[in-house]
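SEQUENCE-TO-STRUCTURE ENTRY
===========================
What this section holds: a protein sequence and its matching fold, both as plain text.
Question of interest: how does this chain fold, as expressed in C-alpha cells?
***
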Amino acid sequence: MYDENGKPIPEDPWSSIVDLMSALVLVLFLAVIFFVTNLSEASSALESERAVMAEKSVILSDTQNKLATANAQNLDLIAREERLLSDKKALESKAALLLADQARLIKEQEKLKAEQLALLQERSELKAQKDQLLGDKSKLLGDKNKLLGDKNKLLGDKAALTNKTQALNAQVLKLQAAIKEAAAQRTSLMNQLESTFNQKSTQGVSLDKEGGKIILKSEVLFPVGQAELTAEGKKNLGKISAALIEVLKESEFRAQVEGIMIEGHTSQAGPFRKNLELSAQRSMHTLQFLLSLPQLKKSDVQLKRLFFAGAFGESRPILKKNGQEDEVKSRRIEIRLLFNQAHIKGLTDALSK
C-alpha cells in the first residue's frame, strides 16, 4: 500500500498472517466440501472397483495357478530341452566319431582296394611268369633233347675227329721225318760243297748252309761299278762251277735240287735303277759264263736247265749289327740252290685238307 505522497506504507505482519490463515481455512473448507461431495461417489465407485478387483483377483489367482502350471511345464520343457541339447551334443560327438571312423574306414577301404589291385596285378604278373616259365621249361626240354642229340653227334664227331687226329698225327710224324730228312740231306749237300770248295782252293766264297746259298764277293768277280768278269773272277767261277757240278752229279744230291738261281745284288749307294740294271747284268754275265764252261757243256741237258738268273739290285742289303748297311757285303753274287720240296709239299697239302 502507498500513502498520499506515494510512498509505501509499512504493513502489519500479523494482519498478513491472519489473512493468510483465513485463506487457508477457506481452502480447507472448500476441500472438505469437495471431499464430502465426492465421497459417496468415490465409495460407490470403490465398491464397484472392489467387486471388479475381487473378480480380477479370482482371475489373477486362476491365472497364477495356470502360470505356475505353465511355469512348471516350462521348467520341465527346459529340462527336457537341456537333456535334448545334451543328447544332441552326445549324438553330435558320436556322429563326429562315426564320421571319423567312416573316413578311416574309407581310407582303409581305399588302401585295401589298392592292395587288392596290387595283388591282382601281382597275380597277373605271377601268372605271366608262370606261363613264361612253363614256356621256358618246354623250351629247355626241347633244348635238352637237342643237346642230347648234339652230344651224341659230338661223341660221334669226337670219335671221327680222334681217328682223323690220329691220322693227322701220323702224317705230321711223316712230315716231320721228311723235313728232318730233307734238312739232313741239305746239310749233307752243303757240307759236301764246302769240302769240295776247300779242296779246289776257291777264294772269296762263303756258304749259307741254312739258306742253301753260295755267296761270292763282287770285288773278286767284277771291277767296281762294272758287269764284266775279271780274269780272277772267271778263274774262281770255274773252280766253283767244277765243285758244284761234281757234287750235283751224285744221284743222292741231284734229286734234292730243282733249280739253281744266280742272284745279282748291289749296295744302296747310287740310283736305284742303275743298281738294278747292274745287278741284272752281273747275274746274266755270271750265268752265261757258267753255262759256257766245259764241265757244264759236258753235263746233261736237265742239269743245265736248272740254272737261271735273277736281279734284286739294292732291295736285299746286308746289315751290320748296328742296323747300318754293310756296303761291301751287300755287293755280291749268290748262287741259291732251290731244293726239291715235292714230297714235303704233298704231305703239307694232305694236312691242309
User: Anything to note?
Assistant: The two ends are 187 Å apart (CA to CA). The longest helix spans residues 13-200. The beta strands are 205-208, 213-217, 257-265, 307-313, 332-339. The chain has a mean pLDDT of 83.
